[in-house]
Amino acid sequence: MGMFSESVDVVCAPSGQPLELDWAGRHYTVCAEPVRWYGRRQWWAEEQRAPLGSGPGLVDHEIWRVQVRRTDSAEPDSLTLDLTRHVGSGRWRLLRIHDGLLPVRKPESA
Fold this sequence. Notes:
With 110 residues, this protein is mainly β. The protein has one domain. The chain has two helices and seven strands. It has helices spanning 43-46, 55-59, and strands at residues 2-12, 18-23, 26-30, 35-40, 60-70, 79-85, 92-97. It has a six-stranded antiparallel β-barrel. The two termini are 27 Å apart.
């Protein structure tokens, strides 16, 4: 589906690991061990100035790949999403939905 940025509400464990999320009016539960890494962001495109000593939080951003399942559905299908958390505000954004892992939709009957 590609890259985009959309706000999501995420509930985390005390360790910071995502457990649940609300997105597009639906509630999801993380159903597999998430994977975390850090990426470099183009801070100069988002910030006017870089305060002295703020390099790690400003340059690097935390990304989580999570596999989630809808809690209000009997369907066993899951989605794999990439989420990022803004270091300063703690806000979460959905960055990517992985095409190859989208649920297979049944064809509509004619």
